[in-house]
Amino acid sequence: MKIVKLIIISLAILIGINEIKAQVVNSVSSLNDDSDAPEIFFEKKVHDYGDIKKGSDGTCEFIFINTGKEPLILSNVQSSCGCTVPTWPKEPVLAGKSAVIKVVYDTKRIGIISKTITVTSNAKTSPIVLSIKGVIRDKY
After folding, report:
1. 3-class DSSP assignment, residue 71
2. Which pTM does this prediction carry?
């Protein structure tokens, strides 16, 4: 009987959390319904390193353009792992202008690369998830 109660309580908590998340997402989406709001367009959303040698340069760039009418502000750019370090412009990107998010991956680890970078901004479409992939080999 205790197990059934525990399962019911757990399900109720999960349903409550999902409801709260849905309300937050809807609130954020409604903030960006302005037709003049900035829009972010990435030339690419995935960077494929392919096969690279251990210790090689793990730097890549994601170029984006503000295709909206208002200044674009990147409030946060966060990677899914500490081995992936993004840097981004802290100043507003004016309408029609482009900028770069630079990502450095630590290539000292052998194996498959599959990481994401989440870009949060004041754009109509936010957040946007970028990704890097590839394989690091010890020997070529």
Report:
1. coil
2. 0.72
